[in-house]
Amino acid sequence: MEPTPEQSPHHAYPDHWEADVVLRDGGTARIRPITTDDAERLVSFYEQVSDESKYYRFFAPYPRLSDRDVHRFTHHDYVDRVGLAVTIGGEFIGTVRYDRINDQGRPASAPADEAEVAFLVQDAHQGRGVASALLEHIAAVARERGIRRFAAEVLPANNKMIKVFRDGGYSQRRSFEDGSVHLTLDLEPTEKSLAVQRGREQRAEARSVQRLLAPGSVAVIGTGRTPGGVGRTVLRNLLAAGYTGRTYAVNRAFDEGLATLDGVPAHRSLGEIDEQVDLAVIAVPAHRVPEAVADCGEHGVQGLVVLSAGYAERGAEGRELQRELVRQARSYGMRIIGPNAFGIINTAETVRLNASLAPESPARGRIGLFTQSGAIGIALLSGLHRRGAGLSSFISAGNRADVSGNDFLQYSFEDPDTDVALLYLESLGNPRKFTRLARRTAAVKPVVVVKGARHSGTNPPGHAVPVSRIPDATVSALMRQAGVIRVDTVTEMVDAGLLLAGQPLPAGPRVAILGNSESLGLLTYDACLAEGLRPRPPIDLTTAASPQDFRDALADALADGTCDAVIVTAIPWVGENGEAETGDGQVLAAALHKAVAGGSAKPVAVVHVEIGGLAEALAAASSTAAPRPRTAAPRTAAPDASTAGGPSTAAATSTDRAATTDRTGTTTPASATPAAAAPAPENASGTGQPTAPGRPAAPTDPPAPGTATSETPAPETPPRPGRIPAYPAAERAVRALAEAVKYAQWRRQAAVPGKIPEFLDDTIDEPGAAALIEAQLATAPDPRGRPLTHDEARELLGRYGIDVRPTLPAPDPEAAVAAAARLGYPVALKTTAPHLRHRADLGGVRLDVADEEALRRGYGDLTDLLGKPAELLPVVQAMAPRGVDTVVRASIDAAAGAVLSFGLAGAPSELLGDTAHRLVPATDRDAAELIRSIRAAPVLFGWRGSAPVDTAALEELLLRLSRLVDDHPEVVSVALEPVVVAPQGLTVLGASVRLAPPPARSDLGPRRLPNY
Asked: What is the Cα Rg of the chain in Å?
């Protein structure tokens, strides 16, 4: 007989099970445990479920719930019997329940590890992914309570529920018994279940942003009755951009007789609007925002842009108001951009949305832009506009209490109108998730990031997110590992974005330089060397060079197989009277584009010094480009180039007509109109044809239409001629090109992922290490864990094939002599006091001690110089072969995860910060790159005639340490110092290990939106 709740032990309400989730259609819902106060909600929910769904749930007609049913389904012990509900607006739309059972299927308690599970979803909400989200969360709850398997009975006709179980990715068994399908699911997460979960997360979050950026109707709440003010400005900008949807002005202070405002319907509340409103822009004082949000939620608004200030940027009280704003909006299924936001823009021809304070909507383009600062957003919009870069979308998130940079990456990954994603971030709410999303997005399109507040150690006002203690250099290294192009300033972001959006990726670092100024060419040459590029000697066309000379020289460089990119430098022509000639810029721009149109797919950038008309001609593309068709799914192949020009790119032709001019910042011939866009060749091999901006120039054919690979699951941009970006200084053009070179190299390597060598499995004792860790933590009185002794650390590391050279204590000279006799001469005598550890410069180390006499003498010198043995804690250690002293570390950050670090011991890493980092688990490629990415790496490879050291052994050590901290998250920090790497083999001379209960892994749990 099933125990009653009164007979079961009472457990407190598990509020950590509460979660906001994004459903398949982009709306939000709340998942929480069912309580005894939910009786009325449960009855109301059940009344709205169809008879068919009730039959599928109970295997018989069941028109209503009895009082006993209601009591049973609302009373849980949160251990053996658990119920979860999905709510919107406080009402149930779906439920799930499990009951722990024994081997005979009878109610049971622990240690029974199986439970029977059943779902019920309101018919109006079926197909939104409610049951899938519930399965993820109830499975996580069950694992927490010691349940390892779910059993479910499903009628054969209930295909939707069978599909939920089948598509979950869990290992399962299925049988047909007594007219029903019997399913058993193993709840241990698998690679497949995690991939399914993340795939659903990506589609749902991308859809939630897409709903905000492409609404069918917009209401501006707080529109002023007189010109001016925030609300009225947004309404004016909506109308000026030509928004294609329906627009409404809403203000409760409107006169009852007011029918229109600025030509759009005016209403005092959303309830007066007869049609669905998809997006509400809220521009009212903060104290009136809750009323406006409630009005939106009750009338089915899908998303909010909150421009109102007065939230977390004002301190603790405002932070609580911000949290309540998010809770209120999500309770109605709405997502928020803001508060304190600048607004959003979508330039798609089918939308033309400017729901922002930007007075002028940017031209259509291929760049997506996300900022966490309104001021920076204004600067970026202005800078991109001046440089001729059109945008596909723009989000200025303000305090980013809900929609974040992670959501924008999810959207950008799928958006066919975005080729490059630019992000200005001041905080990373979930660095682990950010790097995962950035890596996937960067595999198909460039991601450029500027990180503000890098050195403050705190978050900017208004950003109520966890503060990560990771040094900025580490954050930068981890971004690079994920393929992110990390730059320092918004100017560098614009420079890189222009090149990546308008030009193909370079195949290598070889750069051709040509121009009509020897000095400017030399400056460019020096800048290339400083950025690690391989420039060819500049080609000086002399100041007498004509545009035709530029065209010929550029065509030759593009055809030359010994260079991968071209930088054109240009200064004004000087006439016979000694004055600079004007008006030749358009002619030069046309000549350069003609050369590009007939050349191979290599990036081209222009460095110019005040040439009249050139900057304008280099800005002529975005307003003349043909829009590409919007598709609902990611592109997996190259469509016809006749639709590939995009809003920011015009096709380059080889006519003799001069270039036209607008304010967009790139070179385009006058004939490059949508009608003149050249169709793609039937054999799209890329030979002699420009490749897509931001895409590598590959010698092989692109995949056939409709194909996709596991490495590149998202759309590739079709081949199309690129725009030529112009820069006022050589350093800026070269820096942008260098970033493109590094990114292209990352793309090529990411196409073939690294591996973890199989030989590690034969020399690793994972169960033995787990037993040691469990035993050591069991003896730790401090819940924060404990450091291991030298011998304990040696034993644990030895389980993973990491041999630490033993040290023997030497509290007095006699003990030192005995230790040396045991280890064998020559030995090292060194102190281990914390203030002297690894400080050979202070005289705390004696090396190559050859015999007893030398040892006694050295011991006396050490104590005379530095203090008593009890203070110095001397030890004796056998000498290691000579080599390069390095340091290898691994640590776990609660936000970013486990990080592996490497550097040379001493001043290079400690004083100069010359340390490289990679996320764990590291692959063979990561390990190889790690030791080669420090500035002092040449020391390892035979610098100045020294013998190269055994880098293969060093890479193996890095892989073993990575495997240790990945297998055992209780190992929260490891430092191997020094690691002496010799020409043959290496020696670990010192090791420190700290164990602690592992931090929670939010990225491995069920999907949930963050609550800050």
From this structure: 33
Q: Which two tokens stand for residue 899?
A: 């990080």
Residue with tokens 């040892």: 855
Say how far apart CA 558 and CA 913 lie, in whole Å: 40
Contact 165/172 with Cβ under 8 angstroms? yes
The answer to whether the CB of 661 falls within 8 A of the CB of 617 is yes
Q: To 10 degrees, the CA torsion angle through 265, 269, 275, 280?
A: 90
**What's the confidence (pLDDT) of residue 453?**
65
Residues 121 and 104: beta-carbon distance below 8 Å: no
Q: Six-digit token pair at 362?
A: 């940017």
Query: What are the structure tokens assigned to 873, written together?
Result: 């804690």
Q: List, for residues 106-142, the tens digit of each pLDDT value.
A: 999 989 999 999 999 999 999 999 999 999 999 999 9
- Distance from C-alpha of 421 to C-alpha of 413, rounded to nearest angstrom: 9
CA distance 238 to 345: 9
**Euclidean distance between the first and final Cα of the chain, in Å?**
44
Which single residue is written with the structure tokens 């804690």?
873
Q: What is the pLDDT of residues 951-982, one digit of tens each?
A: 999 999 999 999 999 999 999 999 999 999 99
Establish whether the linkage from the previous residue to 921 is cis, with ω within 30° of 0: yes
SS3 for 849-876 is ECCHHHHHHHHHHHHHHHCCHHHHCEEE
Report whether 452 contacts 424 (CB < 8 A).
Answer: yes
The Cα–Cα gap between 897 and 890 comes to 10
At residue 700, what is the residue type?
T
* Alpha carbons 83 and 287: distance in angstroms, whole number: 36
- The whole-angstrom separation of Cα 131 and Cα 581 is 71
Neighbours of 9 (CB within 10 A): 11
Q: Which amino acid is at 612?
A: G
Spell out the alpha helix ranges (H) of 751-877: 759-762, 766-778, 790-798, 813-823, 852-866, 869-872
Question: Rounded to an integer, what distance in angstroms lies between the CA atom of residue 243 and that of residue 347?
Answer: 9
Rounded to an integer, what distance in angstroms lies between the CA atom of residue 518 and that of residue 515?
A: 7
- Which residues, in sequence order, are CB contacts of 774 under 8 Å at separation 6+? none
Tell me the CA distances in angstroms from 548 to 555, 599, 656, one per residue in order.
10, 15, 11
Q: What is the DSSP string of 674-693?
A: GGGPPPPPSS---TTSPPPT
Q: Output the CA–CA distances (angstroms, integers) from residue 813 to 291, 453, 818, in the order listed.
A: 80, 53, 9
| Nearest-angstrom CA–CA distance, 96 and 73 | 10
CA distance 449 to 490: 9
CA dist., res. 694 & res. 717, Å (int): 8
Instruction: Return the HEC string of 170-189.
Output: CCEEEEEECCEEEEEEECCC
What is the C-alpha separation between 481 and 407, in angstroms, rounded? 20
Residue 72 tokens read as 């049973």
DSSP output for 218-268? EEEET--SSS-SHHHHHHHHHHHTT-SSEEEEE-TTS-TT--EETTEEEES
Phi then psi for 28, rounded to 5 degrees?
-110, 160
C-alpha span between 7 and 689 (Å, rounded): 77
Q: What is the pLDDT of residues 458-502, one digit of tens each?
A: 555 555 455 556 677 778 888 888 999 999 999 999 999 999 998
User: CB within 8 A of 328, min separation 6: which ones?
Assistant: 290, 293, 294, 297
What is the C-alpha separation between 159 and 155, in angstroms, rounded? Answer: 8
Q: What are the residue ranges of helices labelled H in 539-621?
A: 547-559, 585-598, 614-617
* Cα angle 573-575-577, degrees, rounded to a multiple of 5: 145
Output the six-digit token pair for 752. 């073939």
**Quick one: how far is CA 526 from the chain centroid?**
34
Q: In this structure, how many other beta carbons lie within 10 angstroms of the beta carbon of residue 443?
A: 19
Asked if residue 695 has pLDDT above 50, the reply is: no
Are residues 156 and 133 in contact, defined by beta-carbon separation less than 8 angstroms? no
